[in-house]
Amino acid sequence: MAELSKVIHVRNVGHEISENDLLQLFQPFGIITKLVMLRAKNQALLQMQDVASAMNALQFYSNVQPTIRGRNVYVQFSSHQELTTMDQNSQGRGDEPNRILLVTIHHMLYPITVEVLHQVFSPHGFVEKIVTFQKSAGFQALIQYQLRQSAVAARTSLQGRNIYDGCCQLDIQFSNLDELQVNYNNDRSRDFTNPHLPSEQKGRSSQQAGYGDVGVAYPQMANAAAIAAAFGGGLPPGISGTNDRCTVLVSNLNPDRIDEDKLFNLFSLYGNIVRIKLLHNKPDHALVQMGDGFQAELAVHFLKGAMLFGKRLEVNFSKHPNITQGADTHEYSNSNLNRFNRNAAKNYKYCCSPTKMIHLSTLPQDITEEEIVSHLEDHGAIVNTKLFEMNGKKQALVLFETEEQATEALVCKHASSLAGSIIRISFSQLQSIRETS
């Protein structure tokens, strides 16, 4: 038994365990004056106000196995009698709030660039500078906010979260640095207060090649922040986020009723559409090229087995990486009907399989329910409708008897003109119209 001390040494502290979790474990025994996370060793040091409090805690946990988030942690007296600020590991980092954060990324399955970090951290305040580097502890970044409270808020909100589902976990501490030195604006460092910095030292080859490689291998990177924001830092069940195939093969279509624009209306719910090609030698097949692999994965996941025009759709990844532009392809890359150019996070959030309820927006201010019904009723029996106003804009919910009728209405009438306005239609995840009142 180590000699008595008011400092407690905790082992097996996994990355998922936060400082807050540890505080809750020891707060019942007295006031905690200091807490140091030794992340690299999966350990922590915790100083109680006096030896008696530490003794009470260790006595209690000698009879009861302490667990945090399903993980057993092991506690004993520390060899330290007192924690000095220098124990907050060698660089003097720890819990003293500072506007600069030291971020370590664990389980890094994707390359993380300055752009991705900026998208993840900027919702919490103005990010002035970011520097990234590879260390023995793994990939690390220093992130400098304009204000200290922004850094505190970011750390509270993001500590232990994943940038992508199941990987790229954020481990955040305060840095003891006062100011970051940034000499170059490239994918490894950036000064957002000085856009005129060069991208590299004169005489070195361009860094842009490296940028491009990331773009090709992981096209979904650009959406990282929107995806993280939409799904609360995770991903919907069944979505891996690791697919990089952008082109989708749709088969078992109804060749008499389908065309490129109708496919666009359906697939654009899950991402931006680059181009679409109906296959002449197989009239019930089509290729749809999405903006990136993540969007293609959403489309395959949510549309597999959907019913449209009396047929059950088969939706799979194509072996073609993209569709070659030609006389028989329809181009949509510059279409202003692509939904994910604006409010990407909101659009990701609304992704779902076809439902019986559709949501109409960008309606004329003086529209009536009767006009909406007559615009849509040739696609099936309408069970219920509701017209309402959101942020001063007219919107509507329309409930059909079946998912197939709702899908047909969306496919045929999204981006159609109603009383002089081009209307937008998406599926609603509400179960019944009452829920909105």
From TrEMBL:
SUPFAM superfamilies (UniProt xref): RNA-binding domain, RBD
PROSITE patterns linked: RRM
Biased composition (Basic and acidic residues): 188-203
Record key words, sorted: Repeat, RNA-binding
Pfam families: RRM_1, RRM_5, RRM_8
Domain (RRM) ranges: 6-80, 246-320, 356-430
Region span, Disordered: 188-208
GO terms of molecular function: RNA binding
Stored Gene3D superfamilies: 3.30.70.330
Keyword Metal-binding attributed: no
Protein name (database record): RRM domain-containing protein
Organism: Manihot esculenta
